Amino acid sequence: MKYIIKGHLCGHLCDDCSESLAGVEVLLYLPWQKERIVETTVADTKETFHLVEKEEKAARKSLLIATTKTDEKGDYQFTLDEKYGNTTSFDIDFVCGQVPGNKKSIKDPLQFHLTTIFAQWRLERETDNYYFQWRYCIAAKWWCHIRGRYFDAWVICGHLYVCGTKTPIPGVKVTAWDADFLTDDNLGSAVTDVHGHFRIDYTSRDFKQTFLSPWVNVETDKGNPFTFQSGPDVYFKYEYNSTEIQGETSANRRKNVGYCLCVELCLKELIVPPTGIPASFTKIGNNGNHFINELVASGNPNVIALATGKTPAGQAFFSCIKLRGSLTQKLNGAAMEYSFDTIETNGPGGPEIGVWKKVTASQMCEAEIGTFFTFTGDPMNPISITPYKVGNVSGGVDGSGWIAVPQASNFAPNVNGELLSLNTDTLNGGTVNMAGLVQGQSTTTVAALQQNRFFKIRMRKRAVGNAASEVPAGVSNPVAMFNTIYKSVPQFGSWMPQTSDERGVACIDIQEMIGGGGGTGCTPITDALHVNYTAANPNMGGVSLTLYGPGGPYSIQNVSPVGSVAETFGTATELHNPALVPVSTLDKCAYTVIFSVELKLTNGESQHGNIEDWLSFCKN
User: Fold this and answer.
1) Residue 298: is its pLDDT beyond 50?
2) Most buried among 45, 245, 333, 397, by the most CB within 10 A?
């Protein structure tokens, strides 16, 4: 039997920017200051983190019990002998000789103490080994200081958005410049990714250039050449398709920045899409997270699967979904308008059912399709941004479902942004009554199994009012949708029954507490516990039963596995691993069983939350 500690190390550069610590040595010690074990174990790691000096390193040398290295992802693992089975407290350090984004290494690597960890060993039933997991990301306050002071590693992490909309702008080359007295220094460039994120790494050598470089390197201040500052004065320029576009000047510089600079940038004057990009529907969901689903590019791993109609993560769609793409103000020189249609299909790859139907205003949620910008003349706020929204509440849609693109010269239509928000509940919404369902039994005892329905979505565009000019502008694969509400789902067992309305079923009961079996809500549990459970939804993910209480939590081992099924049900008779704490020896106390069901449903922005049921009981 082995004792395994698994972990991950990373360092924060900004709140939303971090890097894995790859190739660093991780050290595991027995606790050094035993009289302070409790104090150091409960302390925040930010308070215990420090550089280990030579004296401390020597004093702790005999306490070192294991070393390992992190892999390219920052993951590491210690495998300990059985003699450490009764040891729960360990000191953990790491040794750093180089940092990401910088080639410089130091002759004498630095050792840092992280904290004292308390290992709550858990038995891994498949391997018969005990394990504990501890992951930590060093606070930016410390990690940026380490990178800069010891390795001369400076970094800029940022996002580029459309001003006022937070819509990420991909594919833009961002160059950071240091404003200097004589010649501004180029600190480096990076191209924004699909989330609008970019990162630029540089060193002090990049901003300490002078006309005497490389013999004399020093940082000078733009406003006062005789004042020497320690950090650069940073501003940004932009390029798109090798063409320079609007950017900042040295007047916008951020003065004397530190080792880590975190910025949010935006293009204030959003120009119409570049030549060659027509108005088109290309995506469902937020362009800034992993639920993006491109609908047109063959072979793209983000394409909604033709075989399932779901996202690559196996999710169906529900509620209001944002239909995204690019708009232009003109079509063949005339003012443009556009609309969306839907048609149901017989399964993800089946034939179409009926005819295409226009999406009308009553089927729309609010969508922001562009912005109006106005030059104010105020140097503190030079441009005023006003979003333009369309939909059921906001208007902008005629009686036939057509949306006219504003023609004002100061209107910036979306590029890779929202075109329309479709309320999918208007396509396949409905309810199913679960009244009479008994926990542990199939939902088919009260109603038929519920299934996804599938719809294609397409965009049409034309010159305003000119039906003869109408042309297609993008069509999706059949998209899996689920909006059914399960009504009157039993909750909280048979002795304290309540009901809920959800997009799925998650309900449990404890046999020993069912009145018909001689139990009541106050009947104490002795040495047996049997949980009846039922879960249903055609898009289920993970299903778990967990017992919370002294020594826990404990995971139930024999819940029926969930694959591509619309429901699972049965009775769980083992609530935790007997090798840890047998049921018969559990403390006399209160316990809670929680049943959690993952619903793999997305609105394109985020996944639906888990649905749950729970029961508490007393152990006699």
Assistant:
1) no
2) 397
> What are the tens digits of pLDDT across the range 97-145?
889 877 778 888 999 999 888 888 888 777 788 989 888 999 998 999 9
84-104 burial: b if 16+ Cβ within 10 Å, else e = beeeeebbbbbebbebbbbee
Contact 259, 230 (CB under 8 A): no
State whether 198 and 344 are in the same domain. no
CATH number of 119's domain: 2.60.40
CB 269 within 8 A of CB 162: no
Q: Please give the residue range of the domain that contains residue 454.
A: 280-439+446-481
Q: Which helix (H) or strand (E) holds 145?
A: helix 140-151
CATH number at residue 220: 2.60.40.10
Give the C-alpha separation, 177 to 158, whole Å. Answer: 14
Give me the torsion for CA of 472, 478, 479, 484, rounded to 10°. Answer: 120
Confidence of residue 523 (pLDDT cuts 50, 70, 90): low
Task: Tell me the pLDDT of the chain averaged across its residues.
Answer: 83
pLDDT in tens, 181-221: 667 889 999 998 878 899 999 998 888 764 334 443 444 44
Domain annotation covers residue 599: yes
Is the bond leading into 406 cis (omega within 30 degrees of zero)? no
Q: What are the residues whose beta carbons fall under 8 Å from the beta carbon of 313, sequence distance 6 or more?
A: 290, 291, 600, 602, 607
Residues 477 and 488 both lie in one domain: no
pLDDT per residue as tens digits for the range 401-452: 999 999 998 888 988 889 999 999 999 999 999 999 999 999 999 999 999 9
SS3 146: helix
- Are 284 and 430 within one domain? yes
434 in the same domain as 287:
yes
Tell how strand 64-69 and strand 25-29 pair up. antiparallel
Residue that is written with structure tokens 């299909």 in the block: 345
Residue with tokens 């698994």: 6
pTM above 0.85, yes or no: no
Domain co-membership, 498 together with 607: yes
- The answer to whether 285 and 308 have CB atoms below 8 angstroms apart is no
Report, as an integer, the average pLDDT of 246-265.
89
Higher-confidence residue of 617 and 614: namely 614
DSSP for 311-350 reads: -TT-PEE-SEEEEEEE--SEETTEEEEEEEEEEEESSTTS
Does 148 map to a domain?
no
Domain boundary residue among 267, 298, 325?
267
The rounded distance, in Å, linking the Cα atoms of 252 and 286 is: 30
Query: Is 120 contained in some domain?
Result: yes
Number of structural domains found in the chain: 4
Question: Within this chain, do residues 461 and 388 fall inside the same structural domain, yes or no?
Answer: yes
Domain shared by 379 and 463, yes or no = yes
Are 135 and 96 members of one domain?
yes
Residue 363 included in any domain:
yes
Model confidence at 596: pLDDT above 70: yes
Q: How many helices (H) and strands (E) does the chain have?
A: 6, 44
CA gap 483, 451 in Å, rounded: 10
The residue out of 244, 267, 290 marking a domain boundary is 267
